[in-house]
Each structure stands twice: as structure tokens, then as C-alpha cells.
Amino acid sequence: MKVLVIGGGGREHALAWKLAQSAKVQTVFVAPGNGGTATDRRLQNLPITDISELCAWALREKIGLTVVGPEVPLAAGVVDVFRAAGLRIFGPTQAAAQLESSKAFSKAFMQRHAIPTAAFATFEDAAAAHAYVDAQGAPIVVKADGLAAGKGVVVAETLAQAHAAIDFMLGDSSPAASGGEGRARVVIEEFLQGEEASFIVICDGKHVLPLATSQDHKRLRDGDQGPNTGGMGAYSPAPVVTPAVHARAMREVVLPTVRGMEQDGIPFSGFLYAGLMVDAQGGVKTLEFNCRMGDPETQPIMMRLKSDLLDVLYAASEVGGLDPELALQWDRRAALGVVMAAHGYPDKVRSGDAIHGIPAEAEGAVVFHAGTTLQDGVLRSSGGRVLCVTVLADSVKAAQQRAYRVASAIAFDGAQMRHDIGHRAIKA
Ligand code: AMP
Ligand code: GLY
To answer: Residue 295: CB within 6 Å of ligand 2?
Structure first.
């Protein structure tokens, strides 16, 4: 079978790498891919990003399954377009992708279906938003409605920060206003305390198959300091998700979400990512939904997956196609991925730095590419997150040590990385 992976980041490199291991797969095309997928003999880059062009190409090439990595094509309706053309594709429809693409939609959905989440209110009017924040007090969280690549959330420690965030998100120069997407909206919500976990499942519209748990590191600098990013590293499994927490997450969040979407007439198929806040008592609340895999969570998760990913995604791309008795097989070892980011990330990213020293793939150690491109035989940075050095080892601590050993051999000007990925799972 020929398979198409849409996207060009570290997540897509890891998905394509895993799909290519299936005996049933002839070629994995990655559109547009990156410098890493360009150099992997099992993968082939396809320089197309326009959805209707991709669809026409997939029909011509008789692509047997398409897997969508990022949220942007999902929110733009790539699944609807491919299905209408009779192509098999794994991912949510445009309507179902609103679970991620609209915070207002997902918060209203959670309220309607009694799914635990932070208390909240939604505003289009800045004066009303300011008054609400004054009444609630700080800390408080201000979120822009719409896709914002991890930059639309301000965790305000003071009222002044909250007011500034409202002015930024609802002002005339706000991203929504200048993007012409209609009226800007903010969601203001209660600040939740606890430890975060990424809880990702495969859905076929009816049934759910949980993936291994993981934890991301959203802040740029060690000790969870500095600005929010798309994620600076991740590991799997996440010990904060004990068996009891896992059971609660399934019972209170994931299953009611899948049932709720079905009841609302917009069944969810695809990867469903619940960002959870786990409190000291093991209670769970939903911070956000994503309608896709996490990046960089995918990289360690794919390293641990032993089952054939193609079989599972092929089955799940049909409503009710997943075998409800099926459980995925996982490597018992821990996997940990360290992101190497470009100079200036997450603000003004510099591109074009030459990258040296990437080791060949070894057992249990893979350097997944994200923002890289191959120019005249030279690998150069081309995005914010450049690489994700991902390893398997007997413990999170051993994986951390090995990942940093591998990363220390890799060099490019301005490279940034955290030095404490996995710290919550490592007891001193
Ligand atoms: P989101 O894009 O909604 O996941 O938010 C990005 C990050 O902001 C999350 O990973 C959390 O670290 C933080 N965050 C979001 N909502 C809350 C909340 N209600 N309470 C505390 N932290 C939050
Ligand atoms: N790593 C967080 C995300 O993919 O949303």
C-alpha cells in the first residue's frame, strides 16, 4: 500500500518512520516533509500543500491511506475533501476538528456533556471581559479563540497581565481581527493547579484505543521558566497517570467526549488528544483538546509502539472499524525526546543555520527532524523546532542521559534546548 502523511514536522517524521515499518507499506509519502524525511530511503517527500492538489495527486497515485499530522489542514477540511473523493483518510472532519480549532466550541461542548474542565466565560466585548477578570481576581487564564500555535494562552499571575492579554486579543490589531476571521473572542478561565499530562487516543467515531501516556514540557527554559512554546521535549510513559488516573481520564473525559460528539451528530475519528491537569488527589480536568497527535509527544510514543500502526489507523479510518478488544503493544522501556530549537524560538526564528553531527539511526536512538531542509546537500534549519533527539532506555533517567549524550554531538548556530526533560519522572 502507498501511504500519505500530511505535514512536515517532527510529529510527521515519527508517524512516517513508524508507518514505513509495516510490511504492508510500499512507500510513505510525506507532504511536504522536511530534511529528515528527504534523506530517509523509506520515505519520499511530496512538495504539495494545497488540499485540492493533494487530493487529486492521491487519487492519481492510488494512495491507500492518508494520515494527517497538523491541525491546520484538519480545520480547513482536508478529511471532508478526501472522503468526498472516495479516499481513505484518518483524521476528524472539519466540524469535529472544532474541538481544537475553537476554544469556545470545546468549552461549550464540555459544559453540555459534563466533562470536567476549568470554570470559564466567553467574551467578545472587552469591557465585559475586563470586568469579569476584576471580579474573579488573579491568577487567571486568558485564551484567544481559534488556532494560535501555542501562543494564544496567557496564564496571568496578576490582574495587570490579564487586562493586557484581553487588550491584545480583543484589540484592533489582535491576530483574529487582522486575520479577517470575523470577531475576536476570548475564553477566560479558572487557573488550575496540578501536573499536566498528554492523554492521546485513537478514535474511529465510536470506539477508543488509548495510546501510551506522555508528558510535554511547554516552557522554553529549564525549571519550566520562560515563554510557552509548542513543546521542548516529551517522554513516555508519564508516571503522573497512575492506573487510577488513567481509568478516570477514560471514564470522565475521553469516553463522554466520544459519545458526546456522536450524540451531537459530529462523530470524532482521528487522534484525540486531551491535555489533562491532574491534581494532588488524582482528579482530572481537561485543559484543552487537540484533534491530532502531540508534537513532540508523538516522537517518544512512536519509539515505544510495537504494534503495526498501519493496521490500526487503517481500521480506525472507518466508523466502528476498530476492534474494541484490541490493545496496542508497547516497549516496556521509557522513551524520551529532547527538542533542539532554532535561534530566537519561539519569537523571531532564524532559519538557514547549517546542522552538523546528526548520528545515523541506532537501535533505540532516532533523531527526528522538524524544521530542517536539505539545500544543495547541506542540512539547514528552517523552522522553530529543528530536531527531536529521541531514545529508548530502561528508565526515564537512563533515557534522559542517553538523549543528552546524543544531542551533545549535534551542532548548529544558536541551538537552544532544555537540559531537564523528564525531570518530573526522575526522583533525586
Ligand atoms: P492550552 O493551549 O489551552 O493547552 O494552554 C497552554 C498551556 O497553558 C497549558 O499547557 C497549561 O500549561 C497552561 N494552561 C492552560 N489553561 C490553564 C488553566 N486553566 N490553568 C492553568 N494552566 C493553564
Ligand atoms: N506538544 C503539545 C501539542 O502538541 O499540542
So the answer is: yes
Name which of 187, 222, 319, 309 is nearest 261 in CA terms: 319
Q: How far is the CA of 287 from the centre of ligand 1 (A)?
A: 6
DSSP 411: B
Q: What percent of the chain has pLDDT over 70?
A: 96
Give CA separation, 167 vs 62, 105, 149, 188, in Å: 50, 22, 19, 13
Nearest CA to ligand 1 atom 10: 218
Which of 15, 71, 101, 198 to mutate to test ligand 2, by most ligand atoms within 8 A of the CB atom?
Answer: 198
Q: Ligand 2: distance of its center to the CA of 295 in Å?
A: 5
Of the candidates 230, 191, 204, the residue with the CA atom closest to the CA atom of residue 347 = 230
Strand 215-216: give its sheet, edge to edge. 215-216, 233-236, 334-341, 385-393, 365-369
What are the cell numbers at 256?
A: 463522554
Q: Is 297 in the pocket of ligand 2 (CB under 6 A)?
A: yes
Q: Is the CB of 299 under 6 A from ligand 2?
A: no
Quote the ligand 2 centre to 84 CA distance (angstroms): 29
**What is the spatial distance between Cα 345 and Cα 73, in angstroms, rounded to a whole number?**
23
Q: 153-163 pLDDT, tens per residue?
A: 899 999 999 99
Looking at residue 296, what DSSP letter applies?
A: T
Distance 135 CA to ligand 2 centre (A): 32
Is pTM beyond 0.90? Reply is yes
CA angle, residues 275, 334, 245, in degrees to nearest 5: 40
CA–centroid distance, 214 to ligand 2, in Å, is 11
What Å distances lie between residue 256 and 84, 111, 272, CA to CA? 28, 11, 12
β-pairing verdict for 43-45 and 27-32 = parallel
Tens of pLDDT, residues 118-168: 999 999 999 999 999 999 999 999 988 766 655 578 999 999 999 999 998
Closest-lying ligand 2 atom to the alpha carbon of residue 150: 5
> What residues flank ligand 1, with Cβ below 6 Å?
118, 141, 143, 153, 155, 189-192, 196, 218, 228, 275, 287-288
Cβ proximity of 46 and 31 under 8 Å: yes
Q: What is the 3-state secondary structure (H, E, C) of 62-130?
A: CCCEEEECCHHHHHCCHHHHHHHCCCCEECCCCCCCHHHHCHHHHHHHHHHCCCCECCEEEECCHHHHH
What is the torsion angle, in degrees rounded to the nearest 10, for the CA atoms of residue 126, residue 132, residue 136 and residue 140?
A: -30
380: its cell numbers: 539547514
C-alpha 192 – ligand 1 centre gap (Å)? 8
